Amino acid sequence: MRNKILSVVCIALGLACQSNADTWALNYTTDSAVVNATLTTGGAVTTFEGNSGVLITGISGDRNGLALSLVATNVDPTLGASNVVPGWLFDNVVLSGGLFDYWGLEFSDSNNNAFNFFNQLYASNGTEYRENSDLIRTWSLKQVPDDSYTVAMLGAVFIGLATFRRRLVS
Questions:
Q1: How many whole angstroms separate alpha carbon 139 and alpha carbon 142?
Q2: Are the beta carbons of 90 and 82 closer than 8 angstroms?
Q3: In whole angstroms, what is the distance from residue 10 CA to residue 142 CA?
């Protein structure tokens, strides 16, 4: 009986595990640029507009073949966008649903050129993404599954099935 309970608990635990991504794949094109980036995110935040999201804490990848680095925001996103780079406003937050707000994401390339990826029509509930003043032609933002959760889930399922199988055989 104890083995049966253990097997059911392990299978249920394995099936109940969900992958919480802390990385995102961002890809977009403009008329003059191709960006392929991986964003690393930290804890959950609520922006000063009242929207839920996660703070971007790192970036890797390239823009037209040049390596990317994150320009860190120096202000709590709940208080409003920062103004670290004169003329550029940004909060480095991915909103729930995989969207960006008007303040957007700030990064630079290995030639120290700064870029701001943002939603021009965010205030009017629209979506028109731009990089600086260039219109984004195509873009995608997808969560990347955390493999450690997948391994834990599969491990729990296999332990449960092995215990259940052993119970059936004996």
A1: 10
A2: yes
A3: 30
Q: Is residue 105 within 8 Å of 115, Cβ to Cβ?
A: no
Q: Domain range spanning residue 73?
A: 23-144
Asked if 87 and 102 sit in the same domain, the reply is yes
pLDDT per residue, tens digit, the chain (170 aa), is 555 554 444 454 444 444 445 999 999 999 999 999 999 999 899 887 888 999 999 999 999 999 999 998 766 666 665 555 555 678 899 998 899 988 899 999 999 999 999 998 887 778 899 999 999 999 999 999 876 655 555 555 556 555 555 555 55
Residues 135 and 153 in one domain: no
The verdict on 53 and 101 lying in the same domain is: yes
Instruction: Give the burial class of 27: count Cβ atoms within 10 A of its Cβ; 0-12 exposed, 13-18 middle, 19 or more buried.
Output: middle
**Does one domain contain both 52 and 67?**
yes
Number of domains in the chain: 2
